[in-house]
Design goal:
CATH superfamily of the largest domain: HAD superfamily/HAD-like
Radius of gyration: 18 Å
Structural class: alpha/beta
Order of helices and strands: EHHEHEEEHEEHEHEHEEHEHEHEH
Shape: globular
Number of domains: 2
Helix content: 25-40%
CATH architecture of the largest domain: 3-Layer(aba) Sandwich
Distance between the termini: 12 Å
CATH class of the largest domain: Alpha Beta
CATH topology of the largest domain: Rossmann fold
C-alpha cells in the first residue's frame, strides 16, 4: 500500500548533529507533501522547543511532542490530543526523584508554549545546564515542586549520566509499576540519558495511531523513522518502520529495516525509496 503518513523523530533522525535540515531532506519532505502525504514530527521535545524549531525551518507539519503526551495544531495552537500525568502520580514521581537527589523537571502549561518547573539544579549536570540556558525564558523555579503539583502536569523528566539514569530508571519503574510509562533517550557518545515519565496512555505510537485514525489512514500506510528507544512504540505501530543508521546498536539489533545516518540523508533516502512515485 502507498504511504500516506510519515512520522519522523526530530533529533538524530530528521536533523543532523548540528540541528540542520539538509537540502535533500527538505526536498524529499516537500515532494511527499505535494503527493498528498501527511508529515508529522513526533518528538520527545517539549512543545515550545519543537514549535520554535519548525517555525525557524519553515515547515508545515503536524507536531506530536513530549513523547506523545501533547499534540497541537501549530497554526492555531489548539490542543488536538492530550494525555496529562495525574497530579498524585506526578507528586509520587517527584518524591522519588527528591529521595534519589536527581534533577527533576516538571513540564507544564499544555495550553501555551510550555514551562519547565523545578526546585533545584545540581552543578555537575552540565548537559542540563546547557539545555536550560537555551530556553531560560521557559524555566520556572519554585521552592517546593511537590507543593506546586496540585494539578495534572504534562509530564515529569529527569536527566543525567547514562549509568546513573539506568539505575534510577529501574528504581522508579519498580516504585511506580502500572502508574506511569518511562521513555529513555540515551546518548552514549556524550554520556547523557533523558528519562521522560508520562501517563500510561501517552506514547509516540498511540499518538501516531490517533493521527492516522483521524485521517482515515490505515496502519499499513504509515511510515515511521526513528533513532532511539523512545521511538519504539511508533516503530512497532507503523506498517513501514525504519531505524536510522546512527541509532544505538541495541535498537538496530531489534530487526527493523535500516536507512542511512542523519548525517547522510537517511530520512530523505527512505522517503525517496518508499514514498515518492
Amino acid at each position: 500500500m502507498a504511504i500516506k503518513l510519515i512520522a519522523l523523530d526530530i533529533d538524530g533522525t530528521l536533523l543532523t548533529y548540528r540541528s540542520e535540515l539538509t537540502a535533500r531532506t527538505r526536498a524529499a519532505l516537500t515532494a511527499a507533501q505535494a503527493q498528498g502525504v501527511t508529515v508529522a514530527l513526533v518528538t520527545g521535545r517539549r512543545f515550545g522547543s519543537a514549535y520554535q524549531l519548525i517555525q525557524e525551518l519553515g515547515l508545515d507539519v503536524l507536531l506530536v511532542t513530549h513523547n506523545g503526551a501533547l499534540t497541537k495544531d501549530c497554526a492555531s495552537l489548539a490542543t488536538l490530543d492530550y494525555h496529562p500525568l495525574a497530579a498524585d502520580t506526578a507528586r509520587a514521581v517527584a518524591e522519588h526523584g527528591r529521595a534519589a537527589q536527581t534533577d527533576t523537571i516538571c513540564n507544564d502549561d499544555p495550553h501555551g508554549h510550555g514551562v519547565m518547573v523545578m526546585e533545584k539544579l545540581s552543578d555537575e549536570n552540565g548537559a542540563l545546564h546547557r539545555y536550560l540556558a537555551k530556553y531560560w525564558d521557559s524555566v520556572r523555579h519554585v521552592p517546593d515542586l511537590i507543593e506546586y503539583l496540585d494539578h495534572d502536569p504534562i509530564q515529569m523528566m529527569f536527566s543525567g549520566h547514562c549509568d546513573a539514569m539506568e539505575t534510577f530508571a529501574a528504581s522508579l519503574e519498580e516504585a511506580m509499576t502500572g502508574r506511569v510509562q518511562l521513555f529513555k533517550t540515551r546518548y552514549r557518545s556524550i554520556d547523557l540519558t533523558i528519562l521522560d515519565v508520562l501517563s500510561t496512555t501517552a506514547s509516540k505510537g498511540a499518538s501516531v495511531a490517533a493521527l492516522a485514525a483521524q485521517q482515515g489512514i490505515a496502519r499499513e500506510e504509515v511510515m515511521a523513522i526513528g533513532d532511539n528507544f523512545n521511538d519504539l512504540t511508533m516503530l512497532r505501530y507503523a506498517g513501514k518502520p525504519l531505524v536510522m543508521g546512527n541509532a544505538e546498536d541495541e535498537l538496530k539489533a531489534l530487526g527493523f529495516e535500516l536507512t542511512d545516518t542523519n548525517e547522510a540523508d537517511g530520512v530523505a533516502k527512505a522517503i525517496e525509496k518508499y514514498v515518492l512515485l
